[in-house]
Amino acid sequence: MLRRTLAAAGLVAVCAAAAAGVVLRVLPRGNPMAAARRLDPERSFWMAGAPVAPPLPSTGRGTIAPWKVGIQAGHWQIDQLPDEQRRLRPDTGAVWRGLTEASVNMEIAKRVVAQLEAAGVSAELLPATVPPGYDADAFVAVHADDGGGTDSSGWKISTPWRASEASRLLRDEIARTYAQASGLPEDRYGVSFNMRGYYAFSWYRFEHAVAPTTPAAIIETGFLTSAADRAVIVDDPERAARGISLGIIAYLGELARLPAEARVPIAYPPMQVATDSAPLRYYPDDGERVRTRLSAGTWVRPFNEENGWTELVVWGNFRVFGWMKDSDLRPFTLLEQ
């Protein structure tokens, strides 16, 4: 029996999305890979096809009202997480010789809020518990890292798995200004699957999470175990905060020029690896480090594309993610068996 194809599943998803009144983000025409990805027939991690987001909130923020930004001090009051996130309550963060990550995060986060307020932005300091469906123009979670006995140093920043154009802009602007202000190196290969899947981003799992149309990022400001990093994030939190707030302000300036749909996450249908031993790289460049190689037929979930490259995660193993050339991928179909 011929089972449904990707195209048929896509039509069903379009109809369901239209009936539910969700916002659909249509990808550009002319790119066969993009055309194959307009809809996601899955009903699991990626939530039923299309960017499953409610209608964009109608606000005058940024024009007749101040921009609204939420700054989360990572691990602050984590023991008060709601029952739906109770398994995370024991995660109190990194510790170095009695210095807690939560206290370091708080010192930076509260300064970011003050700096944004001084610039005319409506900013609020958030604990570990995120208000249900948190709606804002930006959400940034502030954290610090633990090198685990290594000599690791530097910062890193990430968007959610399924990120909107606005979320990626937020990430890029903070990365630029934090690098300049802190003077610390980027931990270029350090972004983890836990950062991408941060619980506060998980609107598809939790009530207490940011709204899907809230641009979001998480930054690890440095390593508590690094003397060079502590000189900034512990000894000079004002400087660390400035690197974040300047990026947010630059992002808000760009956000004002983007269409409203730039806040909506884009969904892509599942794909399969088309060539054997296909390289999965950390960044979309032939000269970049190879994370691993994937066998032909491996199922993957795309979540971004750029100049002939696809950012993806291996189906069922979120620890394995990176960039692969479009020429090494093919659309996923369910064939007659």
Report on the architecture of this protein.
Helix content is 26%, strand content 21%. Helix 3 crosses helix 7 (237-255) and helix 4 (165-182) packs antiparallel against helix 7 (237-255). Residues 1-52 have low confidence and may be disordered. It has two domains: 6-52 and 267-331, Roll (SH3 type barrels), CATH 2.30.30.40; 68-261, 3-Layer(aba) Sandwich (Aminopeptidase), CATH 3.40.630.40. It has seven helices and 14 strands. A hairpin with a 2-residue loop joins strand 2 and strand 3 (99-100). Strands 4-1-5-7-6 form a five-stranded mixed beta sheet. Strands 13-12-11-8-14 form a five-stranded antiparallel beta sheet. It has 337 residues and is α+β, with helices and mostly antiparallel strands.
